Amino acid sequence: MMKDYYKILGVKQNASQAEIKKAYRLLAVEFHPDKNGGDKASEEHFKEVSAAYIILGDTAKRNAYDYTKGHHKNYTWQHIEGKPTPVTLLILFKRIKDKVLHANGKVNQNALFKVIDDLLSKENIKFLIHVRDIATNNLIIDEVLTCCIFLSENLKSDLYLKLTTLADGDSRFKQKVALLNTRQDTLENAKAVESHDHTLSRTSKIIFIVFLTLFIILFIVSIIRL
After folding, report:
1. CA 2 to CA 65: how far, in whole Å?
2. CA dist list (Å): 55 to 2, 25, 47, 51, 99
3. Which listed residue, 103, 136, 147, 195, has the most CB atoms within 10 A of its CB?
4. ∠ Cα 136 141 146 (to 5°)
């Protein structure tokens, strides 16, 4: 489970970016290893504080983190001084995917698109390509493609363009998109067939009831004539 970064920094969920930055600097000074004689507990807390600031200090990552926690608020853009890693971004994308998969189909498409689009900023994509952690980049692409299942074609196409850049010429990306679209088409066709079959089934029942009613009427009429 992802840690409560607000609690680690000792700030409220509606704290401003300035308040988060101030809290981080105070805690970083307090728990810095150089000021605590190499104390292991202080060192671990310093790492937690740094990790929390990497997420909450950057508005795009903070929005994504809040989205996974059920808080939907968009913050004014502000970049951080800390250095994220490809895995940091992967964890956020994975959390977003897990949330939508457990939403029972109740997904706000615009909110989902917003957090993913912000995380896939030009700066983050450039960073991911530069680091060249190809395995992690492919996992990020997989997480985003899964989330795209819940988006409209227009929103999906915008993200596909960014993922194409992130794929950096990897031919497997096009295969993944083609496979995903094929699966969606199959699912939609299956739903259409199911709906059609349901309609036919209901029509058949109605016809049966009509014929049964006519049969009863004719039977009653024949008895009366006798």
Report:
1. 9
2. 11, 15, 13, 7, 18
3. 147
4. 125
